[in-house]
Structures are given as C-alpha cells and as structure tokens.
Amino acid sequence: MALTDSQHSRIKDYLVEKVRQKLDAYNPETRSMPFHFRLLGMDRMALFSFIQSINTTLGTSIFEQIAKMIAEPRAKYAIAQYRDFEGYISSEAVLTIDNIIRNLRSVSRSPNKKRETKEILDVVRKGDLGNKLRKRVDLFVKMKDGTEYYFEVKTAKPNISEFTGIKKQMLYWIAMRGSTSEAPVNVEAVKTIVAIPYNPYEPKPYDRWTLQGLFD
Hints:
216 residues; alpha+beta; 2 domains; 4 strands
C-alpha cells in the first residue's frame, strides 16, 4: 500500500529534524587517530565517523518511529519502543521452544510459524510459570481486527547465531502473550516478525527457507 501525502510529509520532516539534531550535537568519539588520518585523510575520516553515527541513530530509534508512522493509518494503534509487554514463560513453554530451536538448527524439522505458534500456545499455562517478565519490543502494532504484530527491527543482516537468538526471543514473545490471556489465543492473532530495512540479498528476494519461513 502506497504512502499517503501526509505520511510522506511526516516522515520527511522527521528525518530532516533528526539529521539536524545530529549535526548540532555531533561530537566524535575520538580525534586521536593518527594512522587513519595519514592513510585516509582527516576529512574522509570525519565524514565516515558522522555517517557511522547516523547509522547508529537510525538503528536505535529512527526506523521504529518511521515504521510506526507507516502503520498508524491502518492500525488501531502502534507503539514504538513498546516497554510494557509483560507475561510468563512457563517451564513447558521453555522446553517446547528449546526443542523447536534445536530441531530447526539440526534441520530435523522445517520452519512452520503457524505450527510453532500453536505448539507454544498449547503449553503456555503448563508447568511452573515463574516470575512475570517484562520485555521491550521495537514496534507493537494492534490492527483494527484485533491481530497483534510484534516487530524486532534489525539494521543489518544478523549471522546465524544472532538469528537463532532473535528466533528464540520471538517464540518467547508468543509464550508471554498467551500466558496472560484468560481465553485461548488464536494462532492467527499473534504475529512476530523480524524486519530489516533493506534486502541483503538484492537483487534476489529473501530466501523463504532462511528468512521468510522462519520469521514472517
């Protein structure tokens, strides 16, 4: 769905404001880089340092806010940096999640998000619940039909170990969401997604096995 003129304007103004703030407040981490200065030049290193700083800012806050602006017109509400996500991860849910991760890593099972979600929701109240946990979600979106989306935003393609951690975290989110609901949660009502602002496989689409199948 194309962005509206209003969304275009909001996103443009937001980005201009953030870049200006970064220019006003920017202070290099260090100015003592004699080897780099002699090899590459002080002006190039200054530009590189500033661009790296912008990239860090994009990843730590800006992408979530832009995603929120994109989601809002079609959502009931959207929250960037959602810090009030609470729930339990039962002992049975931990065992189920560990089993899913282990079998995916050993390729003894194929990714199937719907099946994985159902397996976890079936055990969210079984075993020891332990203490209530609070997690931060980069972007939480609740649609008008009640569907909930939990987004983990990454600014660079994670390696296999990082992807494993992200996968486990999103399965934990499903367990937490199911544990706090009095009625059984519909498998289709909770979506956990990892979002990367660019396609690291361009010009090819994302490989369904390694990315889309695991996290869509």
